[in-house]
Amino acid sequence: MSISQLARSIQESPTLKLNEEARILRAKGEPVIHLGIGEPKNKAPITAILGSAAKLKYGDVKYAPTDGLPSLKKAIIRYTEENYGRLVAPENVIVSTGAKQSLYNVLLSIVDPQDEVILLAPYWVSYPEMVKLAYGVPVVVTPEDGTFHPRMEDIERAVSSYTKAIIVNSPNNPSGIVFSEEFIAEIVDFCERRGIYVVMDDIYQKLVFDGRQPTPAYRYTQKDIEDTRVIVVNGVSKLYGMTGFRIGWTIASRRMVEVMNNIQAQTTSCPSVVSQAAAEGALTGVQSVVENLRLTIQNNRDVLIQEMRGFTDVRVTRPEGTFYCLPDFRAYSNDSVELANFLLKKALVVTVPGKQFGMEGHLRLSYSGSTKDVIEGIERMKWALDPNAPNEIYIGDRKLIRDWL
Ligand SMILES: Cc1ncc(COP(=O)(O)O)c(C=O)c1O
After folding, report:
1. How confident is the model at residue 374 (pLDDT cuts 50, 70, 90)?
2. In this structure, are 76 and 123 located in the same domain?
3. pTM flag (> 0.90)
């Protein structure tokens, strides 16, 4: 078989792989706890279901305009005005099949071969592979002060004449950190001055805790939407728990949207109309669903922090948003892939190795599931790793004895 060099250079998605492993174990009846999953467990809002059901009921399922149904774009424009304080035109909006496709289309639209895209570690697993798919070069910037918060001085050092864009994801997957307003202001100002695109991946925008408010990047540029270097990506996957509908969108200049439209037209034609109707239903329905989800997740975050306190030697940075936490497990292992495999095998707990996010020695834990899973999952991890934890545990109806510490 002849496989292209590009395809060979692309890594498997570790999170999707873990989902599959967990699914197989569960299918065999194993009581797996999934702290790896990146999706809320709530049902899609009823308005989303009704919206998509109406399309199906009347068999009204055809190709749609490549850039999205006008009625959905109208809802996105309203969302943008309310949450970003910017009134944009329909020509500034393009709907895609998930924020993932939005980001990929953005990169395909701006990256020339060998152009560099700066990624801020810890970063979302897909960014480096997407940059490579666009024939660009991912340049990873890790905060040198050992925190998860990026620093302008580190970024400025990494910028070269090839830098085309910086991807900023706050609230951040995998750390749960929310970047400071000062940082957002600085990076927007820096990118505007240097002619570098700042791609804001705002997919977790409203999932912020403790009374914090999201920080829209547009607030820090005086430039018109047609001139600004700020590109915004968002979607319904995380805020409304609608991961399977696959709807995301991009807000950018008309020219950028035109180019993205051409790419999308030649690759996927348009996002599914059934899903678009669902996204419209979510955006125009009661918004308390987002607040309820946020409160549930904030409560899970508190439970997770409480449970992790009993874990000897694990350093936890308190998440301020998303549904992830990235504890430092280097006291137990420097090899996060090995550690995650060990936890899956011994304790039947799925975690995601920090290595995939550019933070070796850490594990990403998701608390988007039930509170019970958070408690039991961490209990099992303590049992497997911490010599101070009791050496007996019940997993399902099996009593297990730790004999490796
Ligand atoms: C940071 C980040 N951006 C984008 C996405 C993709 O979202 P979507 O499901 O809309 O493609 C994810 C999904 O996990 C994510 O974590």
Report:
1. very high
2. yes
3. yes
Number of independent structural domains in the chain = 2
Which residues face 235 on adjacent strands? 248
Say how many Å lie between the CA of residue 238 and the centre of ligand 1.
8
Nearest CA to ligand 1 atom 14: 38
Residue 219 Cα, ligand 1 centroid: separation in angstroms? 23
Nearest atom in ligand 1 to 124's CA:
1
Q: Could you tell me if 136 and 253 lie in one domain?
A: yes
Residue 92 per-residue DSSP state: G
Among 237, 275, 324, name the best residue to mutate to test ligand 1's pocket (greatest count of ligand atoms within 8 A of Cβ).
237
195 shares its domain with 158:
yes
pLDDT in tens, 70-85: 999 999 999 999 999 9
Distance, in Å, from the CA atom of 10 to the CA atom of 17, rounded to the nearest integer, reads 14
Classify residue 52: in a domain, yes or no.
no
Q: How many whole angstroms separate alpha carbon 318 and alpha carbon 302?
A: 9
In this structure, is residue 53 part of a structural domain? no
- Is 55 part of any domain? no
The last residue of a domain, from among 238, 265, 284: 284
Amino acid at 263: I
The CA radius of gyration of the chain, in Å to the nearest whole number, is 21
pLDDT tens digits along 277-328:
999 999 999 999 999 999 999 999 999 999 999 888 999 999 999 999 999 9
Phi and psi based region of residue 348 (left: phi greater than 0; alpha: psi -120 to 50; beta: remaining): left
Question: How far does CA 303 lie from the centroid of its chain?
Answer: 22
Rounded Cα distance, 295 and 109, in Å: 37
Both 183 and 66 in one domain: the answer is yes
Q: Which residues line ligand 1 (CB under 6 A)?
A: 38, 98-100, 124, 169, 173, 201, 203, 235, 237, 243, 248
Asked if pLDDT for residue 23 goes beyond 90, the answer is: no
CA 164 to ligand 1 centroid distance, Å: 21
Query: Which range of residues forms the domain containing residue 299?
Result: 5-43+288-401
Closest ligand 1 atom to residue 322 Cα is: 16
Q: Residues 133, 108: one domain?
A: yes
Query: What pLDDT, on a 0 to 100 scale, did the predictor assign at position 228?
Result: 98
Residue 49 covered by a domain: no
Residue of 96, 101, 124 with the most ligand 1 atoms within 8 Å of its CB, for mutation: 124
Judge if 235 and 303 occupy the same domain: no
The label of the residue with tokens 């002619």 reads 195
Mean pLDDT of 46-75: 96
Q: Return the CATH number at 397.
A: 3.90.1150.10
- CA 106 – ligand 1 centroid, Å: 14
Percent of the chain with pLDDT strictly greater than 90: 90
Taking the centre of ligand 1 as the mean of its atom positions, its distance from the CA of residue 205, in whole angstroms, is 12
